[in-house]
Amino acid sequence: MLSEFFAAHPLKDFMLPGPFSLFPPAEDRGAWESLSPEYKREILALAEEYAARPYPLRKATDLWPLPATRTGSRPCCAAARIGKSSCGV
User: Fold this and answer.
1) Nearest-angstrom CA–CA distance, 11 and 8
2) What count of other Cβ atoms lies within 10 Å of the Cβ of residue 87?
3) Cα 34 off chain centre by
């Protein structure tokens, strides 16, 4: 099925030259201006929805348990990741 398709149509035939990007850079105004009005409205509606959401505060201690930094105890960190911390994390 899919392997047969790719055997008959190599992926390199579908790829554009240069680096891959999901969207044009902001400086490429022509590409952005060429979007349909409906698509622009959809993008703006999603952006407004995300802008209204609160952004959670992330502290360094949330990302890496502080006791492991102080003591070097890695088992404590592993236990903290599964919710069974014995070192106060």
Assistant:
1) 10
2) 16
3) 26
Q: What φ, ψ does residue 21 adopt, rounded to 5°?
A: -145, 140
pLDDT class of 89 with cuts at 50, 70, 90: very low
Q: Could you give the C-alpha distances from 25 to 14, 19, 28, 43, 74, in angstroms and in order?
A: 21, 12, 6, 16, 42
CB 87 within 8 A of CB 67: yes
Structure-token pair, residue 68: 């492991």
* pLDDT over 70 percentage in the chain: 62
31-57 pLDDT per residue, tens: 889 989 998 999 899 999 989 999 888
Tokens of 47: 């952006």
Q: Please, are residues 77 and 68 in contact by the beta-carbon 8 Å criterion?
A: yes
Alpha-carbon dihedral of residues 65, 67, 68, 72, nearest 10 degrees?
Answer: 170
